[in-house]
Amino acid sequence: MVFQNRSLIKFFVSLILIVSFITLIYATKLFQMNRRSVIKNFLFVSAGVSLIPSCMHDKGKASFLLKNISINGDQEKMLANLTETIIPKTDTPGANDLSSHLFVMMMVDDCFKKDDRQKFQNGLVSFENLVKKRYGSSFVDCTTAQKKELLTDIEKKNNVPDDIVAFYNITKRLTIQSFVSSQYYLTKVQVYELVPGRWHGCVPVKNS
Fold it and tell me: Given this model, what pLDDT does residue 66 score?
């Protein structure tokens, strides 16, 4: 649908440019305008028309290309807020600092089976609908208290549909995975050693 809209926009922009050019040529002959004025006017029209695609740009586009799942920009923002609610920033980096939502999207898109990807997407849509129904706004616009209340209910499975629980569990698991595999965690919290076990071929033996 997005690609169709863009194609239509490009078509109409091209059509407007052609019509504008023909109109200016006709006006030149009719009103005996000089060539410089025609070119100048055509450039003004072209500049104005070129702004149309940017004004009509689909704000729902995700920040990077996804091959197997469909997530728009608003849903990406929601995921960013959800991961930040799961691991908020304190004296340590939060999920947003580590771009955990991008990790979630990439893992689901690249590593999940088709059925699991579909469960994730269905749960995401159901999650958005639940938030809208309960609080009358998007998850992004909810207060911190409302976000925590909702996630607590999901954790306890208090009258929450299974697809939402599945979506939340996947998001939470991948958010934690992104945190414990981050550079911060492996250099500041649990320092990673490439070879943690060492072999010492010759060691002094103490007499008992």
Answer: 87
Give the Cα-Cα-Cα angle 50, 51, 55 (nearest 5 degrees).
140
Q: How many CB atoms lie within 10 A of CB 119?
A: 18
Exposed e or buried b per residue across 22-50, where buried means at least 16 C-beta atoms within 10 angstroms of its C-beta:
eebeeeeeeeeeeeeeeeebbeebeeebe
State yes or no: pLDDT of 22 exceeds 90: no
> Could you report the per-residue pLDDT of 138-184, keeping only the tens digit for each?
999 999 999 999 999 999 999 899 999 999 999 999 999 999 999 99
Distance between CA atoms of 138 and 162, rounded to whole angstroms?
20
Contacts of 45 (CB under 8 A, 6+ apart): 17, 20, 24
